[in-house]
Design goal:
- By secondary structure, the chain is α/β, with parallel strands linked by helices.
- Helix content is 40%, strand content 20%.
- The chain has five helices and six strands, in the order βαβαβαβαββα.
- The termini are far apart.
Length: 167
């Protein structure tokens, strides 16, 4: 079975902007890079059977990815997470991967048991979503053998919740 973990990452200078009131631009940039490097290390050391792919418009992140022995898929510009995920899906399908795992670059704590549970669920289901505490998505595992196409909708869940007044 061929598996790829994709880690979308924008330029560190554009990352963690919600923390602008708390951290300086340089601090936010260092934090984004540290979290990105941690994700790379976790998957290189604990899940080495995954090929690693970084999708980014940033030349700096391409250099970081290469230094971590990860492949890089270069976007022409920052087009958003849905576009990056779609590019990764097409890339992985074209190269014959069986499973695609998409994870954010900024998860602060990686627990092997949680990733193992996600992968176990992936043996039973075509799609597995690891929900974040804020209702977002911490990981998305897709069976590429069974999925011919996929429409990514990162971010729309929170908008829909507000629109309809549900929790």
């Amino acid at each position: 079975m061929r598996r790829v973990v994709a880690i979308p990452m924008k330029d560190p200078a554009e990352s963690k902007t919600r923390l602008a009131g708390t951290l300086t631009a340089a601090q936010r940039e260092r934090m984004a890079l540290a979290l990105f490097r941690r994700a790379q290390t976790v998957f290189a050391m604990q899940f080495s059977y995954f090929e690693r792919l970084v999708v980014t418009p940033s030349a700096r992140i391409v250099t970081e990815a290469t230094a971590c022995n990860a492949a890089a898929l270069v976007e022409e510009s920052t087009r958003g997470l849905n576009s990056a995920a779609q590019s990764v899906f097409i890339w992985a399908k074209a190269r014959g991967f069986d499973r695609l795992l998409i994870v954010p670059a900024d998860i602060p704590v990686w627990l092997r048991s949680e990733v193992d549970e996600l992968l176990d669920d992936g043996r039973k289901y075509d799609l597995v979503v690891a929900r974040a505490h804020d209702g977002g998505t911490n990981a998305l595992l897709i069976d590429l053998v069974r999925a011919e196409r996929f429409e990514f909708c990162y971010g729309h869940y929170l908008v829909a919740r507000e629109e309809f007044g549900s929790d």
